[in-house]
Amino acid sequence: MFTEFLTSVIAFLVSALITLFLTPHVADKMKKRGIVGVDVHKQHRPKVPEMCGICILVGLAASIMVSLTILLNYAVDFLAFLSVVLLSGLIGAVDDLKRLGPRIKPLLTAFASLPILLMATYDARPVLPLIGRTRLTIIYPLLIPFAIAVPSNAVNMMDPLNGVMSGTCSIVVFVLTISAAILGHWNTVVLGAGLLGSLLAFYYYNRFPSAVFPGNVGTLAIGAAIGALVVIGHLEAVGVVAMMPHIMNGFYFLTSVGGLYERRQISSRPIRVLSDGRLIASSSVSSPLTLTRTILAVGSMKEEEVIRYFFLLTAFSGFLAFLTVFMMMMT
Question: If exposure means fewest CB atoms within 10 Å of the residue's CB, which of 89, 114, 213, 249 is most exposed?
Fold first, then answer.
């Protein structure tokens, strides 16, 4: 156990330092190439370097390769996890540059689950709170593509304001990593530590006011990584509870627009920027319902205030996820 703990610390430091070093350099190159996104929630609408989520992937990949040299007994789990993340990142990169359709992305991210299926890095007997260990030998493998596609696209939709995606995902990954440690799933602890290091380092640049945007290459890969952590670490119930704000946001959006649509395909935005820079929920009935719009239903707020609500909601879900862990242990 000591070796695994030490490897987790190394994985965290390697991924954090590499991401921290790479991000400003990648951002500079993206800006020079014109790969930028407009921060629509600022009055002056600044252009921010996009696709900088590549740095998270590089830092995470480096941490996994270092961990692999120390813990060869976890090689299959580590390689399956890394393959899922890189495949999802590649899908995101293509979407950033070529614009995939809103219906093809979920299918492709579901396809990214193949490494887990082919390498059999899952247990078809998940433990559920109050129920105990179940036996889903036939059904469970069929659910794995959803376990990757759903969080991948949910995280992709949970990037409305500066630092929300990287900040909330950092909380989720922290919860999953500690939960895995409590349950003794040390392969997942190492993977979670590497992912957390990259996310926190990226958040340093992505926080309000954002100097970088992750792009779909970052959001799809991070969501898929969370899904892979849940499957490999046998944290199904914990993952659902911890990601409740992301799931709610995606559910609100999809039900309000009546199907799968890209944000750029919807003419009416869910929130507006007032002359003093504060944000307010749109009053248009054609505007999609999102978690941001729900938070702003109480009245106008500064962007930093709305971001704080996202973090509080995710932290509360994390607390409930820890309760779920202890209920799993009791059953």
Answer: 114
